[in-house]
Structure formats: C-alpha cells, structure tokens
TrEMBL record:
Name used for this protein in its record: Thioredoxin domain-containing protein
Domain Thioredoxin, residue spans: 23-157
Family annotation (Pfam families): Thioredoxin (PF00085)
PROSITE patterns: THIOREDOXIN_2
SUPFAM superfamilies: Thioredoxin-like
Domain of life, per lineage: Bacteria
InterPro entries per the UniProt record, alphabetical: Thioredoxin-like_sf, Thioredoxin_domain
Length: 157
C-alpha cells in the first residue's frame, strides 16, 4: 500500500512538472511571436507591394531587391546582440535609407535552411551578427560585424 501511494505521488509530480514545462514553452513561443511581429514575412509579392526595408530572407526577396543596396544580416535566434539589433531595425525602419534593404538571414540556428547555409559559406561567415553588403550580381561590396541602424548607415557603400 505504501508503494502504491509513492507511485501515485510520483505520477502526480511528473504530470504537474510536465504541465508546467509545456506552459512555459508556450509562453516563450508567444513572447517570440510578439517580438517578431514587426518583421515582415516575405513572399514573391512582398517587395513589389511593401516598402519595408527590413525583411526575412527568401530567394524571392534576394532576387526582387537587385535594384537596391542589399545587406545580408546573418542573425541567430540565440544571439543576444542579434536580438538587440533586430529590435533596433524593427523599431526604426525609417533610419534605414530608402534604397537599402536589410535581409535577415538565419545563421547557425534551428531556422537556418540550406540556402542560408550556402550564403554563409559563400561570404565566409564564421560569426553571427555579421553584415554583408552585396551588389546586384551578388558580389560582396563590404562586410562588418555588429551594430544596428547607426552602424548600418556608417558602413554601407
């Protein structure tokens, strides 16, 4: 009988712990969604119909923005500096020059896809929070590490 009580008590603890874990994961997911709400979700029509200067990477966005000064921002979800810069770009899109598009490109995190990995390899990215300005042919113009909108304006060519 004591064994049954111990097993039942343990089961209650496991269920309660599991419930708390799931609740905390849902809360973290909601916080990420709220923090990312300003980020423009991209598709083939995004740049044609939206003047956003800070967008998520997609091949379509990269192709559609050839007439602008393009900056690939290699971002990692786990990087504290990246989160600060992300907040800066989303809060201050008007500080980004009108002829510039900053393309947030996932780097070395669970959201990184094969295209993004290939871009990181192509431009020799070894560190998250790296910016690479590219020309209309995809050739590197300049590269720098760190910063937000102020550094973008200082470094862009």
């Amino acid at each position: 009988m004591n064994k049954g009580i111990i097993v039942a008590g343990f089961a209650v603890l496991v269920l309660a712990g599991g419930g708390l874990f799931i609740a905390s994961q849902n809360q973290q997911a909601e916080q990420v969604k709220e923090g990312e709400a300003v980020m423009e979700k991209t598709d083939d029509k995004m740049l044609k119909s939206n003047s956003s200067r800070y967008v998520e990477y997609s091949k379509a966005v990269l192709d559609q923005s050839k007439d602008k000064r393009r900056v690939l921002y290699f971002y990692a979800t786990w990087c504290p500096e990246c989160k600060i810069a992300n907040e800066d770009f989303t809060a201050n899109p008007d500080k980004i020059p009108e002829d510039v598009v900053v393309i947030r490109t996932n780097y070395n995190d669970p959201n990184t896809d094969a295209e993004e990995k290939n871009l990181a390899k192509k431009y020799g990215i070894t560190y998250q929070h790296t910016f690479v300005q590219i020309d209309s042919q995809g050739k590197e113009v300049t590269k720098w590490n760190g910063g937000g909108t102020d550094e973008l304006v200082k470094n862009i060519k």
